[in-house]
Amino acid sequence: MLGRSGYRALPLGDFDRFQQSSFGFLGSQKGCLSPERGGVGTGADVPQSWPSCLCHGFISFLGFLLLLVTFPISGWFALKIVPTYERMIVFRLGRIRTPQGPGMVLLLPFIDSFQRVDLRTRAFSVPPCKLASKDGAVLSVGADVQFRIWDPVLSVMTVKDLNTATRMTAQNAMTKALLKRPLREIQMEKLKISDQLLLEINDVTRAWGLEVDRVELAVEAVLQPPQDSPAGPSLDSTLQQLALQFLAGGAPSPGPGQGKVGHGVPDGIPDVVVEMTEADLRALLCRELRPLGAYMSGRLKVKGDLAVAMKLEAVLRALK
């Protein structure tokens, strides 16, 4: 069945297409006689040299012989049970074998290492985080993601920590998608955005042998309304004077109020201190940078009442 991600997902039952060889010391391994196609990595299809192949076979034979000599005591450690919903990835002398299971799997002592891979659908939540939308609104947004592994070999060979990598990919995709949209679009088209996130995440994770089945976007709260809303904050005379001094009279006259602007350290204790570079201030007044975006990116530093500092947006709208 063709998934929404645009590629053909592998059904769980199709894992039996792999050559199942749980017993034996030479079966189902990549060697010098029968290299497999479609391996992972650039050198996965390259066969071993003859000396390496002979050494590999000899050591495997010694391990199998040791298993027979110490049987049945070694059977408690060498025989593993793999349930239907799992596959076992075995590394023999560092070389990967085809997925083992379900059923009983024989491991050779000292030369085999293994890793279990769960094929069942799992889920995680992207914790709510504060984001600024395109129209300047600040909102708390999270997401619920369901995924499953469709290729156990890729999930082991291509990424070290699959869960952490998938979480970071989902969070980055959500952040990039919401920063480009206004608040109203986010609230009205959550399903459409969720489908787009599903495709974007799958474009990354399909190379890891993982398929995301479902993404549900959750808007927890709107922490600050859009900056272009009619109910915006009133103009602050002190900030207007700062804009007037920088533009050298190119702005409308400020209303009555108290306050002053100047260079250096202020005489008294100011209500709010806004720190930024001259280049960033010029970008603000030229409408190339928004105060909220500058604050969240660290280019605008505020000491004091943050609400007063955010009135810079109202000043900039008045300077249009």
From TrEMBL:
Keywords: Membrane, Transmembrane, Transmembrane helix. Pfam families: Band_7 (PF01145), SCP2 (PF02036). The keyword Transmembrane applies. It comes from the Eukaryota. The keyword Membrane applies. GO terms for cellular component: plasma membrane. The chain crosses the membrane at residues 58-79. Residues 77-242 form the Band domain. PANTHER family: BAND 7 PROTEIN-RELATED, STOMATIN-LIKE PROTEIN 1. Belongs to the band 7/mec-2 family. This is Stomatin like 1. It comes from Propithecus coquereli.
